[in-house]
């Protein structure tokens, strides 16, 4: 029997074991009315390795828990790592669907190239995500109660001392049921424009989902939250007058039937929710412009909203810039609500998916 066959049968055996466990309880014993956006340990995680040849093993499901790494692993010493984020939803008929997982796979491959890492094929990525969700199916919240957040990781797990690409890589997926990312839910959030700190620079890694993009925003975010703001809106690092993105989501500005969002030019993450909202908005009759968006345009905007896998669509109630507080709407803006309803209807299987964006998990 080939090594591939052994790996495949190992996965199958573990999935069958997971199914046996899950049949005793259709849903995990959880208060689904009270879940926020925090880690809930689930049953299984997926792990695959790539040695020096850059080709990943098929991988296997393992019980969720700690992993073993050398103190000199590339991920720990030089931050050679990427992550992705996507969700699984339970439909009213009990089936489970993913939302555009192949887009996450392509984005991971793009990021891996920038970070000198091998990456799983698109097919491998999607298949591994499906296996992980299926093994943890009892943790997918009931319809309308949340989603199963899926976190694929790609990291340099091999030992390295000098600055160089790691000799071995690990592709790992874990999951957690989640509710709303912001405590406000689908209610306006309050942002502050950051003038001192910057999220990314031209020629850097702001356009890929490397782990090193996130820790640097924690200081500005912590300061903002201590002052009562929900999050930080960053400006470009050169002119300091063009909008880039919020700490972990893209930003859109609405004026009449025109929706503007900063163009993807290497410092802004090409969000999959961003891409989806652009397509949905165009199908709903809006004109969408991807361009430089000056911070002064916030002054006469009708609405502002953010998008991301975690937040989906988050309306902005106010933005504070240079001490001036700009307020939008008394509640959720009409455009934000329209696009949120249209997108979540597709994600949750409440409306017909004519675009082929959802993928069933069987």
UniProtKB/TrEMBL annotation:
It is an enzyme of class 2 (transferase). It catalyses: L-isoleucine + 2-oxoglutarate = (S)-3-methyl-2-oxopentanoate + L-glutamate; L-leucine + 2-oxoglutarate = 4-methyl-2-oxopentanoate + L-glutamate; L-valine + 2-oxoglutarate = 3-methyl-2-oxobutanoate + L-glutamate. The keyword ATP-binding does not apply. Keywords: Amino-acid biosynthesis, Aminotransferase, Branched-chain amino acid biosynthesis, Pyridoxal phosphate, Transferase. Gene3D superfamilies: 3.30.470.10, D-amino Acid Aminotransferase, subunit A, domain 2. Its cofactor is pyridoxal 5'-phosphate. Signal peptide: none annotated. The keyword Protein transport does not apply. SUPFAM superfamilies: D-aminoacid aminotransferase-like PLP-dependent enzymes. Its EC number is 2.6.1.42. NCBIfam families: ilvE_II, PRK13357.1. Belongs to the class-IV pyridoxal-phosphate-dependent aminotransferase family. This is Branched-chain-amino-acid aminotransferase. The lineage of its organism: Eukaryota, Viridiplantae, Streptophyta, Embryophyta, Tracheophyta.
């Amino acid at each position: 029997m080939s090594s591939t066959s052994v790996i495949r049968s190992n996965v199958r055996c573990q999935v069958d074991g997971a199914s046996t466990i899950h049949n005793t309880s259709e849903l995990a014993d959880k208060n689904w009315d009270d879940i926020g956006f925090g880690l809930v340990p689930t049953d299984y995680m997926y792990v695959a390795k790539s040695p020096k040849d850059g080709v990943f093993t098929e991988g296997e499901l393992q019980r969720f828990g700690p992993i073993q790494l050398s103190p000199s692993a590339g991920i720990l010493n030089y931050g050679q790592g990427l992550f992705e984020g996507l969700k699984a939803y339970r439909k009213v008929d009990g089936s489970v669907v993913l939302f555009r997982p192949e887009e996450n796979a392509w984005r991971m491959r793009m990021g891996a190239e920038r970070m000198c890492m091998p990456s799983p094929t698109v097919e491998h990525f999607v298949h591994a995500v499906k296996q992980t969700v299926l093994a943890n199916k009892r943790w997918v919240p009931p319809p309308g109660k949340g989603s199963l957040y899926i976190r694929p990781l790609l990291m340099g797990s091999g030992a390295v001392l000098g600055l160089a690409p790691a000799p071995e890589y690990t592709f790992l997926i874990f999951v957690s049921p989640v509710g709303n990312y912001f405590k406000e839910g689908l209610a306006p959030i309050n942002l502050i424009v950051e003038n001192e700190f910057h999220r990314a620079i031209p020629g850097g890694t702001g356009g890929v989902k490397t782990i090193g993009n996130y820790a640097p925003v924690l200081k500005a975010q912590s300061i903002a939250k201590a002052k009562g703001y929900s999050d930080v809106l960053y400006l470009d690092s050169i002119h300091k007058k063009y909008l880039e993105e919020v700490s972990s989501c893209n930003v859109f500005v609405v004026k009449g039937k025109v929706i503007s969002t900063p163009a993807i030019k290497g410092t802004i993450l090409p969000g999959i929710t961003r891409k989806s909202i652009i397509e949905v908005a165009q199908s709903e009759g809006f004109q969408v412009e991807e361009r430089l968006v000056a911070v002064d345009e916030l002054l006469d905007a009708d609405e502002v909203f953010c998008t991301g896998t975690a937040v989906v669509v988050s309306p902005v109630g106010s933005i504070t810039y240079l001490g001036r507080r700009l307020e939008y709407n008394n509640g959720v803006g009409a455009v934000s609500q329209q696009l949120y309803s249209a997108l979540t209807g597709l994600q949750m299987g409440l409306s017909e998916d004519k675009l082929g964006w959802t993928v069933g998990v069987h």
